[in-house]
Amino acid sequence: MSPPPDQDDAPGGRFLLWSLREDVHVEADAGKGAVILHSRWGDESVPHPAPQVVDALRRMSLGPVSLENAVTDPAGRAELDRLLGRLQHLVVRSLGLDQERALLSVVPLSRQARFEPARLSPVRALRMSRFAVLHAEDGAYSLESPLSLHRVVLHRAEAMWLIGTLSRATTPAAVLDGLPSPMPAGEALGYLVATGMVVQAEPGGSARAPVFAEDTDPALVTWLPQDLMFHTRSTLGRHDRDFGATYPMGERWTVEPVTKPATEGGYVPLPRPSWNRLIASDPPLTAAIEGHRPTRRFAREPLTARQLGEVLYRTARVRSLVGSAGGLTGGLASDRPYASTGSAYELELYAAVRGCPDITDGMYHYDPLGHRLEPIDMDAVDLCELVERGRTSAGLATAPPVLILVTARFRRVSWKYTGPGYALILKNTGALVQTLYLVSAAMGLTGCALDAADIEVTTRALGTDWRTESCVSGFALGHGDEEPAGPPAGRRPANDAAWGELATELLPKPSA
């Protein structure tokens, strides 16, 4: 069966246009009689192609073309069709009202991308996928979805009108009936369904209450669209964006300093622990791992400056500076007790203190290079609100004497990384929080990570711009309240559950 014609000159007709991705380079290898297509996914060799096929590939590398105009010989067209079927991951399929400009284009994002326009029933309900995201890019609108291996570029206002009809369930017939001007809406809907940007109702459903698979699929119902998009764009395989250490800003912007500039005067120096004392008295690492237990109840016992200083020193101080300032690769980096991708160490610690006898109640920034607390101007009411929000976020029964807020200076990471930057920040945050848990346990203290932070409240309190530095985590620190002995009700031992109790015997008892 021959393929449908590439153009229909009737009013509202369509032009089927073909091109290669913009990053595909066509090279003729005269020595081997082959054509090589270079792409982000490697090289594709086309041995001994017909001259018309070579010419069509070259024209497709320059922009959208009609294959009927590019190859007139039936044998050459059949060869080209077979080739383009094999190279679907390199081929952009466009649908146009004319040959001058496309209505929309379907761009493959992965080597596994395959595309075949869907044939639609005029009465089967459809709607925009709840996972589809529309954004402006390079002078056009783009539709993307974490479920799709294609991007749909909307070139003309007519395409945007079509998208506007699909926010709720409708039918192709209803869309065609409402057309404000002639355009190939039926074919455009077929393109959108084929890419997954538009979904069709399940067969046999009610016309008034159609059921869509993405709303009932167990693999999808628990995903929020933004979460699934974040997952696919911060990993490789389902997009074509730049990824990794690309230094996207080049030398246009200076890198933020390795630590925030220190304030002048008024700071609180913190005691530093003794290496010899730690070596002599610290419990084994296994005891800290097995024995630490997050707590929801804090005792009224205060935290001393010595204890707070030791926690911060052992978890977050700058141990050394690496490199020299300036240059594309970002100048100084640092070395600290917890792991951080690329040694960016973008995380900042702030301590809300309300119960340290030798530190005035208030909000402080921790200077990891000078090992000191820098006071932040904040009245008592705002401080209480901040601590109370932290308490409720962590589900704590009582407020801790110290609430540590962890913020990220995002540009310490984004100047270097494209794609995984924010995901790396969250991983670094996890490494810091785990270090806080283990050090606290080793000292006979207890803590509890905050499940979430109110970035509006914290940035207002800290005086930061949330776009460049805002809260990503928190940690309540203090002495655990006495809890009932034995495992919690309902807990069933599995693999050496008794290790926790054995480890507790090796951990120091809380003391100031």
Automatic annotation (TrEMBL):
<protein>
    <submittedName>
        <fullName>SagB-type dehydrogenase domain-containing protein</fullName>
    </submittedName>
</protein>
<dbReference type="InterPro" id="IPR054488">
    <property type="entry name" value="ThcOx_dom2"/>
</dbReference>
<dbReference type="InterPro" id="IPR029479">
    <property type="entry name" value="Nitroreductase"/>
</dbReference>
<dbReference type="InterPro" id="IPR052544">
    <property type="entry name" value="Bacteriocin_Proc_Enz"/>
</dbReference>
<feature type="domain" description="Nitroreductase">
    <location>
        <begin position="290"/>
        <end position="479"/>
    </location>
</feature>
<dbReference type="GO" id="GO:0016491">
    <property type="term" value="F:oxidoreductase activity"/>
</dbReference>
<feature type="domain" description="Cyanobactin oxidase ThcOx second">
    <location>
        <begin position="126"/>
        <end position="240"/>
    </location>
</feature>
<dbReference type="Pfam" id="PF22767">
    <property type="entry name" value="ThcOx"/>
</dbReference>
<dbReference type="Pfam" id="PF00881">
    <property type="entry name" value="Nitroreductase"/>
</dbReference>
<dbReference type="InterPro" id="IPR020051">
    <property type="entry name" value="SagB-type_dehydrogenase"/>
</dbReference>
<dbReference type="InterPro" id="IPR000415">
    <property type="entry name" value="Nitroreductase-like"/>
</dbReference>
<feature type="region of interest" description="Disordered">
    <location>
        <begin position="477"/>
        <end position="497"/>
    </location>
</feature>
